[in-house]
Design goal:
12 helices, DNA-binding, alpha/beta, homodimer, Rossmann fold, 3 domains, 434 Repressor (Amino-terminal Domain)
Amino acid sequence: MTVTLADVAARAQVSPATVSRVLNGNYPVAVATRERVLRAVDDLDYVLNGPASALAAATSDLVGILVNDIADPFFGIMASAVQSEIGGPGGRAGGERMAVVCNTGGSPERELTYLTLLQRQRAAAVVLTGGASEDPEHADAIARKLRRLTEAGTRVVLCGRPPVPDTGAVALTFDNRGGGRRLTEHLLRLGHRRIGYLAGPEGRTTTRHRLEGHREALAAHGVEDDPALTVHSPYDRRSGYDATDELLRRAPDLTAVLAANDTVALGAGAALRDKGLRIPADVSVAGFDDLPFSIDASPALTTVRLPLQEAGARAGRIAMGKEEPPPGGVATVHGELMVRGSTGGPR
Amino acid sequence: MTVTLADVAARAQVSPATVSRVLNGNYPVAVATRERVLRAVDDLDYVLNGPASALAAATSDLVGILVNDIADPFFGIMASAVQSEIGGPGGRAGGERMAVVCNTGGSPERELTYLTLLQRQRAAAVVLTGGASEDPEHADAIARKLRRLTEAGTRVVLCGRPPVPDTGAVALTFDNRGGGRRLTEHLLRLGHRRIGYLAGPEGRTTTRHRLEGHREALAAHGVEDDPALTVHSPYDRRSGYDATDELLRRAPDLTAVLAANDTVALGAGAALRDKGLRIPADVSVAGFDDLPFSIDASPALTTVRLPLQEAGARAGRIAMGKEEPPPGGVATVHGELMVRGSTGGPR
DNA sequence: AGGCGCATAGCAAGCGCTTACCATCCGCAG
DNA sequence: CTGCGGATGGTAAGCGCTTGCTATGCGCCT
């Protein structure tokens, strides 16, 4: 039924060992023999049996990339960058490394399950992107799992997520707090005092850090932090729209809306416009991440640019062992404030 | 070093066979025994060896999803939908199905390599999303590969891509031609006669079909199809921007710009604005796909909405054998014209 | 001419798991 | 009290490939 190494060997009149060797190219094989084997492979349409090979060799060339939401360009951009460094098919000729992205949907259970699956496959490396859940139980489970992975020789890199101590995982953390602070400072400097904040889902590191940055800035400027001005909602456009309605209901006097992410900011902008409010004349709006579409919003979105591409690429290189991990296994990636048309002085 | 089935068996005082059976749960095992085994698994932190298991069982639960550009929400949305139907971790309790997305970058070679990799892993199913290359040689190679996959029992589903006859692959095709036609008709009805067309990269089915629809509409209305009005460029914002500059240089008298995709349309909009042209007062702009951000553009983008989510979900269900393939193995998915603020009558 | 060493190729022992088939053990019918 | 069938558990034969070690053949040195 299916063609095996032995079949190829028979047709090429050599031993299975020889076929294996020409296929892996890590052992001298005479040119004539090699060609005979290659021809046989071709004639028979032979395809290596991955599991058998991985079992015998006790290694695999799988690299897993975990993302919270694959439909969100924030993750797509990082995943793409990681993957471009993995090489993947097309990288080096023989480098049959396979980078696979796994969509956790932000669920810690799924994250854990995917890690186990990757562990089962004896993955060569795993890159976890984006913020993490803060549920202590899950955080613990994840930490344990990461430790086991690194112990088994799997390289683990966190990209855009806080370090997890004592796991051997390398972390490229985003300076979410600093970005949040700078964004709020920008609005404060423009004269805003009543700033609505769309904070993202609760219980996630990204949400908390950006919010903390926001509050730091408020405190530093002696502005009261009215709890009514903060609304939590998922990281998508629709939720941003709804949350903005809520915000407007609670505090009709706000002069600015800060969103924890560009997608949410877009939803906020739509909600404001639908209420007849002009941006930034009536209300300023700002986001976070600087996704590609943000510059095309109306008006262009003020936001914090995160070098997703660069960070992802670096994570990929570290995962491949092509680059030294940062000293201490932790590096912080900073964002840059991009002031554009969506923010201005309060009315 | 690593814990194996045998270790667990020893600790639970049963045979390896029994352990395997409780793990796979497809054979009666006394409750007491099962619990003893599970405890041992837990105590030892045992993780099944995927390759070994796949080899012995001669099956795998891998499902591959091929996308052209993972950073593009067009693909992200489909991939996410496919994956939600696969179940993935978290689907059913025991359903350790792993959906992996593979980023081909639009390169036929990579596409082929990923298919081979998936074939190596004896994937349970493969979903190919988005348009395909039209290079006859590659098309042939892909067709051959798909045939071999289906012959080996791998379910193959094409989502948003034309059918490939005689391969056993099920196709959910997008009506790109019809969408292109309706979009152009919309502009023609508004009175436009000089319509620039940003066509996407050459040699791809999506590009060609949308362009053909555009030309059909022009022909049907007796409007001359000036070659200078069509520019090819990659499917990204930057390219859309540049191509629009080129278009404006070639035909300063155009009154509308039609883009083969929303992302490109956004770039076009930016280019027009930077030239001081107002949308739609001076130039109308339209896109294709209706990605989530399109409604937030300035002004909101007229476009053709493709039910990416629904199509992806259906593809996933078919791939899982949860839904009957359409009769003949081919179904056409239609788009819906969404008229919004970015199009209006010519100046 | 004899021997040595290198370049190749083959042998065979697993890698860790699944599963067909067989062995037990027990309860209960006869 | 014997025998039989169902419920469990064990035995062992692979699954297809990799790789350490061994065997072979040949050119060339002394």
